[in-house]
Design a protein that fits this description.
The protein is an all-alpha fold. The protein is built from five helices and no strands. It starts with a helix and ends with a helix.
C-alpha cells in the first residue's frame, strides 16, 4: 500500500476513535452547566497533551513503528483534543462580557497544555 494512503487511513481511523473518546469524556463529566470556565475542554486538552508527551518518549525509547504517530498522535489524540472548541469558548466568554475570564482561560490552557506535555515526557523518561 502507498505509505501516504496508509497514513491518511490511519489518521482517519484514529480520528474517529479520538472523537468518540472526547464525546464520551464530555458525557462522563456531565453537562457543563453555568460554569464560568469550560473545564471539560480544558481537561480533555491537558490530558491529551500529557498522553502525547508520554507516548513520544515511549515511541523513541521503544523503537515503535512509524505508523503509530499518524494513528495515535495525529488521529486519536487529534480527535480527542480540540483547539477549535477551546478557541470558540474563549471568544464566547469575551463576547458575554467575561474578558478577564477569557484571557485567564486562554493563558491557563496554554500553560497547562505545555505543562501536561512536558509532564508526560518527563514521566516517560523517568519510568521507561
Amino acid at each position: 500500500m502507498n505509505p501516504h494512503l496508509r497514513d491518511v487511513l490511519l489518521v482517519a481511523a484514529g480520528g474517529a476513535l479520538g472523537s468518540v473518546l472526547r464525546y464520551g469524556a464530555s458525557k462522563l463529566a456531565g453537562p457543563p452547566g453555568d460554569a464560568a470556565v469550560p473545564w471539560h475542554t480544558f481537561a480533555v486538552n491537558v490530558t491529551g497533551a500529557f498522553v502525547l508527551g508520554l507516548l513520544i518518549v515511549a515511541a523513541a525509547r521503544g523503537g515503535w513503528p512509524g505508523w503509530w504517530r499518524p494513528l495515535v498522535g495525529v488521529g486519536v489524540l487529534g480527535g480527542y483534543t480540540t483547539f477549535s472548541t477551546f478557541s470558540l469558548e474563549v471568544v464566547e466568554l469575551a463576547l458575554h462580557g467575561a474578558g478577564w475570564t477569557a484571557a485567564a482561560y486562554a493563558a491557563g490552557s496554554l500553560v497547562a497544555g505545555v505543562a501536561g506535555a512536558a509532564s508526560g515526557a518527563l514521566l516517560g523518561r523517568a519510568v521507561l
